[in-house]
Design a protein that fits this description.
heterodimer; A: about 260 residues; alpha/beta; Rossmann fold; 9-stranded mixed beta sheet; two-stranded antiparallel ribbon; about 30% helix; B: alpha/beta; 8 helices; ET-Flavoprotein_bsu_CS (chain A); Electron transfer flavoprotein subunit beta (chain A); electron transfer activity (chain A); mitochondrion (chain A); ETF_beta_N (chain A)
């Protein structure tokens, strides 16, 4: 069994995004980037499936500028067997949207005869939460979004426990399938220095969207990107009595 | 416009977010058709037919729709769209809508638009990026717009005043060959649901343990509030994930949000900063949560919360 994992390079989770003065987007130059946290979880799950013997090969894929190769090296150091970089640069990368990314993954899943495609449930930059579901639709494979648990059942099925609004849901999917990782699926490991060194020798291939025959033209135009309205800071109260008094007189609280 | 709203329900009751989604749909102008797909959709379809602004209800009944798995629901939506093409297909941005909306879009070769907070015109929508630190206005160039709606950004449509016709069918398009619904383990609670609660009491890592969350539950029960939590509290195993509020959890906007032992990480603020009144209780006066709080109390939560519990009037 072969698994493909999508790993996106995003602005680090600890950085507060700043909107560009010309309102065309968010400042990303000179800002620390890392692997999207939910993709790290998906990758960890893929590696664990390999360690359990259920999976033979884990392939990490990232679409974007050359710097994505750093993200892929991290994936290799964590335990992916090989990596594929799909180069998309400059203006084309600024407007690269989940539908186009899903088309790239569809082609790669077919070309590499993958049985399972894993993604993080959501990238913390565009907050779209779409790529896994789109890829499932394009491949006509079943999907398990927001996975909290994933187990391979006898080689032809996976059982997925999903995080849903009211609790948990268990479903079974026939393989091949697409699954997206939620917070509690697996805790990502840190790569050891030895594995970081070893990762440098692992194969990292390049496939352009043109070579894959995928049209990445955007379908959505961004007209403007603006700062959110600022919430004005309130006041500090001295004690619990002061808090209750303010809530009752100014916030209409009846308790 | 001619909009298809996909109703969310549990087989018996319409999920509240569907009403907010109908309001978002009404801002597109034109007709609103609501699809109720399910193993026994009749009761929910009757409820929806009375909602103000709904022009038509399509109830699709099929045993394979139990659990509303994507592989079952998406073909039903595509079939309805083939029969009478819509300009827009929308659903609430709950786990249900987030799961199926992009899948439907993929089948139609359309770029979906997630979690909109505003409708500017038939093809132009407002949504947030980067945990709410940027607000984008985006225009779809696709023939059909496939959209999920942040329910807290729109008022609920009136549950009465409508009299839409219900058209029933049993659709053969349901695909049962790819996935199986095994079951659900829903959290049973007498507290209000997070999405619908007027008051939310929310705890962070400073609660220090699963057991200590009892302080919050006791306080919440006294004032009739829902309980929420930060991602950090979920990761630490203090509470289950369905309580998580934030960028990648639930987005809430209650009348009163009480952040207790919460530092105010960017991703948490994304889920609650549209609340009407925000209270923060934290012993660290420098905690970023105080920058968005209307009323801040710098005090140890283990002292302040029991005191609050003892001084509020029980509901």
């Amino acid at each position: 069994m072969r698994v493909i994992v999508g790993v996106k390079r995003v602005v680090d989770f600890a950085i507060k995004a700043r909107v560009k003065a010309d309102k065309t987007g968010v400042v990303t130059e000179g800002v620390k980037h890392s692997m999207n946290p939910f993709d790290e979880i998906a990758l960890e799950q893929g590696i664990r499936l390999k360690e359990s013997g259920a999976v033979k090969e884990v392939i990490a894929v990232s679409c974007g500028p050359t710097a994505c190769q750093e993200t892929l090296r991290t994936a290799l150091a964590m335990g992916a067997d090989r990596a594929i970089h799909v180069p998309v640069e400059g203006a084309a990368y600024e407007t690269l949207q989940p539908l186009a990314v899903a088309k790239i993954f569809k082609k790669l899943a077919e070309d590499n005869q993958a049985n399972l495609v894993l993604f993080g449930k959501q990238a913390i930059d565009d907050d779209a939460n779409q790529t896994a579901q789109l890829t499932s639709a394009l491949l006509n494979w079943p999907q398990g979004a927001f996975a909290a648990k994933l187990s391979v059942e006898g080689g032809s099925k996976v059982k997925v426990v999903r995080e849903i609004d009211g609790g948990l849901e268990t479903i079974e999917l026939n393989l091949p399938a697409v699954v997206s990782a939620d917070l509690r699926l697996a805790e990502p490991r840190y790569a050891s220095l030895a594995n970081i060194m070893k990762a440098k020798k692992k194969p990292l291939d390049k496939k352009t969207p043109e070579e894959l025959g995928v049209d990445i033209k955007p379908r959505i135009k961004t007209l403007s990107v603006e700062e959110p309205p600022v919430r004005k800071a309130g006041i500090k109260v001295e004690n619990v009595d002061g808090l209750l008094q303010k809530l009752r007189t100014e916030a209409g609280v009846t308790f | 416009a001619s909009t298809l709203v996909i109703a969310e329900h549990d087989g018996a009751v319409l999920a509240a977010g569907t009403l907010n989604t109908i309001t978002a749909a009404s801002k597109l102008g034109g007709n609103i058709t609501v699809l109720v797909a399910g193993a026994s959709p009749k009761a929910v379809a009757d409820t929806v037919s009375k909602v103000k602004g709904v022009s038509k209800v399509v109830a699709v009944e099929h045993a394979g729709l139990k659990g509303l798995l994507t592989e079952a629901v998406t073909p039903v939506v595509i079939a309805a769209h083939k029969k009478t093409p819509f300009t827009h297909i929308v659903a609430p941005a709950t786990t249900f809508g987030k799961t199926i909306i992009p899948n439907i879009a993929g089948k139609l070769d359309v770029a979906p638009i997630s979690d909109i907070i505003g409708v500017k015109s038939e093809d132009t929508f407002v949504r947030t990026l980067y945990a709410g630190n940027a607000i984008a206005t985006v225009q779809s160039t696709d023939a059909v717009k496939v959209v999920s709606v942040r329910t807290t950004a729109f008022e609920p449509a009136a549950a009465t005043g409508g009299s839409a016709a219900v058209e029933s069918s049993s659709d053969g398009a349901v695909d049962q060959t790819q996935s199986v619904f095994v079951g659900q383990e829903l959290v049973k609670s007498d507290r209000p649901e997070l999405a619908a609660a007027q008051v939310i009491v929310s705890g962070g890592r400073a609660l220090k343990s699963k057991e200590n969350f009892k302080i919050l539950y006791d306080f919440a029960d006294k004032i009739g509030a829902a309980v929420g939590a930060t991602r950090a509290a979920v990761e630490a195993g203090y509470v289950s994930n369905d309580l998580q509020i934030g960028q990648t959890g639930k987005i809430v906007a209650p009348t009163l949000y009480m952040a207790i032992g919460i530092s105010g990480a960017i991703q948490h603020l994304a889920g609650m900063k549209d609340s009407k009144t925000i209270v923060a209780i934290n012993k660290d006066p420098e905690a970023p949560i105080f920058q968005v709080a209307d009323f801040g109390l710098v005090e140890d939560l283990f002292k302040a919360v029991p005191e609050l519990s003892s001084k509020v009037k029980a509901k």
